[in-house]
Write a structure and sequence with these properties.
The chain has helices spanning about 15-25, 40-55, 85-90, 95-115, 145-160, 190-195, 200-205, 230-240, 260-270, 285-295, 300-310, 320-330, and strands spanning about 1-5, 25-30, 60, 65, 70, 120, 165, 165-170, 185, 210-215, 215-220, 245-250, 275-280. By secondary structure, the chain is an alpha/beta fold. The strands form three sheets. It has a nine-stranded parallel sheet with strand order 7-6-3-2-1-13-12-10-8. Strands 4-5 form a two-stranded antiparallel ribbon. The chain has a two-stranded parallel sheet with strand order 9-11. Helix 4 (about 95-115) packs across helix 12 (about 320-330).
Amino acid sequence: MKAFISGCAGPRLLPEEAAFFAREQPWGLILFKRNCADAESIRNLVRDFRFAVGRVDAPVLIDQEGGRVQRLSPPGWPSYPPARALGQLAEHDAAAGERAAFLHARLIAADLLDLGIDVDCLPLLDVVPGVSAAIGNRSFGADPAIAARLGRAVAEGLAAGGVLPVMKHIPGHGRGEADSHHALPVVDADLDTLARTDFAPFVALADLPMAMTCHVVYTAIDPDNPATTSATVIRDIIRRRIGFGGLLMSDDVSMNALSGDYGDRARRIFAAGCDLVLHCNGRIEEMRAVAEAAPALAGEAGGRAARALLARREPQAFRRADGRAELLELAARVHWTPVA
């Protein structure tokens, strides 16, 4: 295996993509809306990827959060509330918020596992202290303690459904006003403020098996490099101060927050200390450049990857209709209604 995760172009695996995966052996595949036409085609795509790499347990990832980030969306799949709705519920009733967060994730896990998808890039633990156009209502809100409690409930809900969680965007994107898909966010908060707020939910969930970095510059820590390519952020903040010992993947290497060609980007990410590079857009020439730069997934990174997969559980018994009805009742308290 090589130390990268790849996307693919569409709802079916193309012959050149199958050959690429067989040759380059990415650790996993990530799916986007362009890959999700209907349930049968997704199952076939997942099957064909695992056949190409020759690993029946090769992880398949997706960003299925709820709100505006749902790769599986109506009418084919249920709609889910944004994280902010869960946060608002928790601000009024902590137990109800945590129950809703668990059900939210448990239902998503059932949707995913039906398709063969076994990793969800969730919970999002970014604390938004004011208004953030980049993260917005994808965040639970401004309270790091609520973010930690609801994040834990989401992680437990996914795990109970046989799906691995990936917390993001470590060590915190909430203060970054720019959208890293388009530009490089810069955060000028001092280290004490960051530790008290932005880092806190990640500290509380540092035992989770996987995390995704953010392409954000923290001027108080490393003014020259975003977290994803900063050895200082990864070593001193993510690994030491936050205490995260699990598998660390980059956010999407094709985002415009990063500069340089794709091979250079990937090499800088590995040099900084990420275990895996994530490439999402399915463009085959970019995929080849990332694969060429990716080392074998071995040593400490290989051990963390193996331990992450060992954290997968058999799904627990769950009545989906009952869980959906309970979630809708709880979400109605904050006036969220499902999209048809």
